[in-house]
Amino acid sequence: MNEPAPSPDILARDDGATIAYHYTPGKAPGVVFLTGFKSDMTGGKALAVEALCKRLGHACLRFDYFGHGQSSGAFEDGTIGRWADDAIYAIDSLTEGPQVLVGSSMGGWVMLLAARARPERMAGLLGIAAAPDFTEDLMVEAFTDEQRAAMARDGFIDIPNCYDDQEPYRIRQALLDDGRENLLLRAPIEIGVPVRLIQGMRDEDVPWETSLKITDKLVSENVEITYVKAGDHRLSEEHDLKRLERTLTNLLEDL
């Protein structure tokens, strides 16, 4: 019989919001896992990264953004900027020394924003189906005329959640407006640390070309992409997690 998962620790923000997190102490560089859109820190990739860090002796932080998992707030009230600010606040408050950020999907966007905001704290980045600018390039561009009209009328629309038929995503205009303020792929991304990107070529959510766009915009010359021909968006199968572990292990060794 499996033991129940330990309760998270809680980090309070000045505005009264709370961030739920799990922190494992260890050596530098530490590793911070950044989850995807409406995902949380109990997912397979987050737990695999934490388990690897424990085996290798590195510090590890995983946490939930505002409106996600066990943190406070309503998901539909969140924005990219708010979630990136949560990441920066958690890094500032809970970690010490150089960090490797591991960002999954939307977490890849958050990863880049946080790294740009705290360059002196960054040792390396690892993106898994990283999705910077997705609100503009993947959402807005895909809206139907009916959805655009509903957004203009109501300030929100509900779109299907392909992973959970019972809970559609409520997308507010505020999310799109804030996303527009945080776009990264329209100009050079001033990040100079080593970056590793893993991208499935059968990803139906994030086009595989996105990783090329990220590489083109990064000022860092130390960027490597691993394409997975049969890989989907989640990259959460056992062989995917082993690839993630290998990639992170090699990055930590290179550092």
The CATH class is Alpha Beta
CATH topology value: Rossmann fold
Tell how many strands the DSSP assignment holds: 10
Number of helical runs? Answer: 8
- Spatial order of strands in the largest sheet: 1-2-4-3-5-6-9-10
Largest sheet: 8 strands, mixed
Q: Structural class of the secondary structure composition?
A: alpha/beta
Q: Could you name the CATH homologous superfamily? A: Alpha/Beta hydrolase fold, catalytic domain
**How confident is the prediction overall: mean pLDDT?**
95
Question: How does the overall form come out from the CA principal axes?
Answer: globular
The tally of domains stands at 1
Could you name the key traits of this structure?
255 residues, Rossmann fold, 8 helices, eight-stranded mixed sheet
Detail the topology: elements first, then pairings:
Blueprint: E1 9-12, E2 18-24, E3 27-34, H1 44-56, E4 58-63, H2 80-94, E5 99-104, H3 106-117, E6 122-128, H4 134-139, H5 145-154, E7 156-159, E8 169-172, H6 173-181, E9 195-200, H7 209-217, E10 223-228, H8 238-254
Parallel strand pairs: 3-4, 3-5, 5-6, 6-9, 9-10
Antiparallel strand pairs: 1-2, 2-4, 7-8
